[in-house]
Amino acid sequence: MNDIVVGMGEALWDVLPEGKKIGGAPANFAYHVSQFGLPSCVVSAVGDDALGKEIIENFTSKGLNQFIAEVPYPTGTVQVEIDQAGVPQYEIKENVAWDNIPYTAHLEAIAEKTKAVCFGSLAQRNVVSRNTINRFLDAMPQTEDSLVVFDVNLRQGFYNKEIPAQIEMPVHEFLEKC
C-alpha cells in the first residue's frame, strides 16, 4: 500500500437503544474513503474480548485494511441514551483499548506510506494514544500534497481549555502539522 489514507484513533461500539453499531470518527473516515476506491487503513486498538474480535471481523468483512492492536484493555464502547427532548447523551467509557494504541515498527511503516491521515482530539485523552499519534505524524512524509485532518471533538466531559496543553506542544506547532 502506497499513498494510503489513514483513520487513526477510536474504533468502538456505539451502544444505542436499538442495538450496537461500529463507531469512532477515524474508523468511519477510513471506511468511507475505501468506498471511493482509495487505499485506506484504520489504525486503532481493541481488547482481547468478544467485542474486539467482532470489530476486526466487521472491518475484514467490509474489505477494510486495518492495523488493529490487541491490548490488555476492554474494547471501547459509548453508551448512547436519548432524553425526552430527543437529544442524545453519550457516556464514553474511559481507559479502554483505543486509549492505548501502541506505536510499533509496523505502524511506522504505515506512516511512511501515508498520504492523508484523520485523527481527533478524543483519541488524545490518554498519553499512550496521544504519543502514538504524534510519532505517526512525525514519521509521515511531509509533502505539498500531504493532508492532515484534525477532528476537534467537543463531547461533554472530554473538552476543556487545557486540551492544547494535553497535546504537549504549542498549538501553533500542532496546527502546522495539520
TrEMBL record:
The keyword NADP does not apply. It comes from the Bacteria. Pfam families: PfkB (PF00294). SUPFAM superfamilies: Ribokinase-like. Transmembrane segments: none annotated. Keywords: Kinase, Transferase. The keyword Kinase applies. Residues 20-155 form the Carbohydrate kinase PfkB domain. GO terms for molecular function: kinase activity. InterPro entries: Carboh/pur_kinase_PfkB_CS (IPR002173), PfkB_Carbo_kinase (IPR050306), PfkB_dom (IPR011611), Ribokinase-like (IPR029056). Belongs to the carbohydrate kinase PfkB family. This is Carbohydrate kinase PfkB domain-containing protein.
